[in-house]
Structures are given as structure tokens and as C-alpha cells.
Amino acid sequence: MLVPHFRRIRLAATDLLKSGIRPDPAYAALRQAGQAIERAIDLAIKAPEGRTRDLGGTLGTKAFASCVAANLAEAAKAA
Q: What pTM did the predictor assign?
């Protein structure tokens, strides 16, 4: 799952900032993208019709990915 991966990136960035090392500007774009993906996933699973079978819904993997992709534009605006 992607969400834990992006959380690890965010934690690593926090450690860098505490040490006084500043990440390059490209990192900020990656961080925003990761946050948008997390929000898109959250939006998808918030509604029962957006959940996969393992979460009590009816969607398969491809349908869930389509749902997340459809939410991504809205999630990116909230960044």
C-alpha cells in the first residue's frame, strides 16, 4: 500500500528538518503529491461504495484505483 510509504517519506523529511538540513524544492512537490494521494485514498474509502471487498465494499483493485484517480484532482486542490 502506498500510504505507509508516503508516511515514511514525511517522517524522513521531519528528521532532516530537525537536523538543520533543508531538502531541495523538488522534495516539496513530492510531499504535496503524497499528501494528495493520501487524501484521494481517504475520500475513496470514506464512502461504502468506494471500498474494496476487504474493507466491506464491493470494488475490485482496478475499480478502487479508478475511484482514487477520480478523487485525485479534488484532493490536490486541498493541498
A: 0.65
